[in-house]
Structures are given as structure tokens and as C-alpha cells.
TrEMBL record:
Keywords: Sigma factor, Transcription, Transcription regulation
PANTHER family xrefs: ECF RNA POLYMERASE SIGMA FACTOR SIGJ, SIGMA 19 FACTOR
A Pfam family: Sigma70_r4_2
Family annotation (InterPro entries): ECF_Sigma-70_Domain, NTF2-like_dom_sf, RNA_pol_sigma70_r4_t2, RNA_pol_sigma_r2, RNA_pol_sigma_r3/r4-like, WH-like_DNA-bd_sf
RNA polymerase sigma factor 70 region 4 type domain segment(s): 116-167
Name of this protein: RNA polymerase sigma factor SigJ
GO biological process terms, semicolon-separated: DNA-templated transcription initiation
Keyword Transcription regulation: yes
Family of this protein: Belongs to the sigma-70 factor family. ECF subfamily.
Keyword Metal-binding: no
Length: 313
């Protein structure tokens, strides 16, 4: 007969991707999410042989433990972000186009709400609203349990969730479209940029397009969001002209949080490029055949987990 610890370990392994996805939605950080999942395993392993978790199913207990640990980290991160230089974006999950179904990261990014355009908005919410929204809409946790986790009344928990949903709806992030449509749009935009064709670039941009850079002042990108077709066209062409169109030849097509993106390993000054190019991950969100959001992530602290991918053939 299998021990309680063996049963728990098996279920934990089966739930790992789901638990990571929950932590990632709440923290926007791969490293924090991994730490939360491992700490959850440690805590529940200690409980399995010594304490009665109140008759809860192991899966439910795992979810509540992950949520509580992620909330702690989200509250700490909210204070640090006040001193962040420029916009803050979630740490990108970069995968191959044909990511195996067994890859836990691949299973996470297939979810609609984990795309960068949506997660960017959710991460701007206060931690309590973020937790209430995710636990109610993604996990399906009752408001009574959400209230206990947040340390508030059930009415306050519902208020947090409703305000969060209203904020996300008002932001109107682009919804995910079929992969083939995304690929065609991004390839057409890149071709227009490579040709430095201003009008062709503008045609591939949504009228409400925006560029969001994330650097924390450690590399060059926009320190404020760039909004509107005309401004974004000028911004993108200025980047191409500054760093030379040949920089595009060194890029690699990848998926960024399940949507089309680019991985540029960077290039130092003195190479065939005109200027040094910082390593970066660029993600795209598409609306009605045009790029609606562009996410330019150059903060080196957020690229540590994509360098292994950059080094593979």
C-alpha cells in the first residue's frame, strides 16, 4: 500500500504545471513562481505525515497554499515596482513554435489569460484585486475562501474581483487570434521594417497600437509606452535605422507567452552591426490582421531563462 507521502508526491507532479500557472498569473515572475511551487511541495510534504489538513483534497490544499505564498510575494513586489525605471512587464515565457505537449511551460502559455497583452494588465492591478480575479475566474474558488486568503469580508473580496474585471475589460487587451494569422501579420511587419518602408509599416499597425518597453534602466528601450500608429511607426523605424537592418538577420522566431515573438541574442559594438544591440525578447499581439501591441523586454534580469534557448541550434 502506498504511503500518504507517495500519493501526495504523485498528485503534486500531476498538478505542477497548473500550480506554476497559478503562481505565474499572480506574480508575473518565472523565478518567483518556481520558488512558490517548490515551497508548496515542502510545506505539504511536512503536513502529510503529521497533520490533518482538515479533510481537504490534496489538490485544493495545493492551490490555496500556492495562492497564499504568491500573494505574499506579490505584495512585496508591489513595493519594489514603485522604484522600477520605466514600465514593468511580466517575465516572458519563451518557447519554440512546436513546443511539446509535455512541456509544462507550453501548457501554461496556451491559456488565453497568460498572453502578454492580458497579463500586462492583470499585473498592474493591486495584489488583492489580482488574487481575487484569478482565484475566482481561473480557479473557480468560492468568495468565502478568497476572503479568508485575503483577510477580508466576502463582500470586500467580491468588490476586489469586480473592480479587477472592470479594469481588464476597460483596457480591452487584444484577444488571441489563430496562429497562422498572427504569423502572417508579424512577417509582413518585419518585411516592411527591413525595407524601411514607412507606409507599409503603418499599414501593418492597428490605429491604437502601443509599444511597451521593459528595461529598468539597464538597456535601451522606450521608458514610456508609445501609443498610436504614427508614433509607433516612427519609433520602430528609428530603431531599425539606429541599429541597422542587418540586426534583423540575427533574430530567432519564437513564441512569447504563446504569441509570436522574436529572440535577439544581441550584438556588441564592433561587429557588422552599426551599434551594440542589447539582448531582447519582443512579443506581438495581433488584432484584425495588424499588430496591436508590441512588448520589448530588454531587462537582463528577465532574460536569464531564455539564454539557454538562444544557445540551442
Amino acid at each position: 500500500m502506498r504511503s500518504a507521502e507517495d500519493v501526495l508526491a504523485t498528485e503534486f507532479d500531476e498538478q505542477r504545471a497548473r500550480l506554476f500557472g497559478l503562481a505565474y498569473r499572480l506574480t508575473g515572475s518565472i523565478s518567483d513562481s518556481e520558488d512558490v511551487v517548490e515551497e508548496t511541495r515542502t510545506r505539504l510534504t511536512g503536513l502529510s505525515g503529521t497533520e490533518d489538513p482538515g479533510g481537504d483534497r490534496p489538490g485544493d490544499l495545493m492551490i490555496r497554499t500556492v495562492a497564499a505564498l504568491a500573494l505574499e510575494r506579490a505584495r512585496l513586489a508591489a513595493g519594489r515596482r514603485k522604484h522600477y525605471v520605466g514600465p514593468w512587464l511580466p517575465e516572458p515565457i519563451v518557447t519554440e513554435h512546436h513546443c511539446p505537449a509535455t512541456n509544462p511551460l507550453g501548457s501554461v502559455v496556451r491559456a488565453e489569460d497568460v498572453r502578454m497583452a492580458a497579463l500586462r494588465i492583470v499585473q498592474q492591478l493591486p495584489p488583492e484585486q489580482r488574487v481575487a480575479l484569478v482565484l475566482r475566474e481561473v480557479v473557480g474558488l468560492p468568495l468565502t475562501e478568497i476572503a479568508v486568503l485575503l483577510g477580508c469580508t466576502e463582500e470586500q473580496a467580491e468588490h476586489h474581483a469586480c473592480r479587477a474585471r472592470r479594469t481588464v475589460d476597460e483596457a480591452h487587451p487584444p484577444r488571441r487570434v489563430p496562429a497562422s494569422h498572427q504569423h502572417e501579420t508579424v512577417q509582413a511587419l518585419l518585411a516592411a521594417l527591413s525595407a524601411e518602408d514607412q507606409w507599409a509599416v503603418a499599414r501593418m499597425l492597428d490605429p491604437r497600437v502601443s509599444v511597451h518597453g521593459d528595461s529598468d534602466g539597464k538597456a535601451r528601450t522606450a521608458l514610456r509606452p508609445v501609443h498610436g500608429r504614427d508614433r509607433v511607426t516612427r519609433f520602430l523605424l528609428a530603431l531599425i535605422r539606429r541599429y541597422a537592418t542587418s540586426a534583423l538577420k540575427n533574430m530567432r522566431s519564437v513564441l512569447v507567452n504563446g504569441d509570436p515573438g522574436l529572440l535577439l541574442p544581441g550584438s556588441p559594438a564592433g561587429t557588422p552591426f552599426d551599434r551594440a544591440v542589447a539582448p531582447r525578447v519582443v512579443g506581438f499581439a495581433v488584432r484584425e490582421g495588424r499588430a496591436a501591441e508590441i512588448h520589448d523586454i530588454v531587462n537582463p534580469d528577465k532574460l536569464t531563462r531564455v539564454r539557454l534557448l538562444a544557445a540551442t541550434p
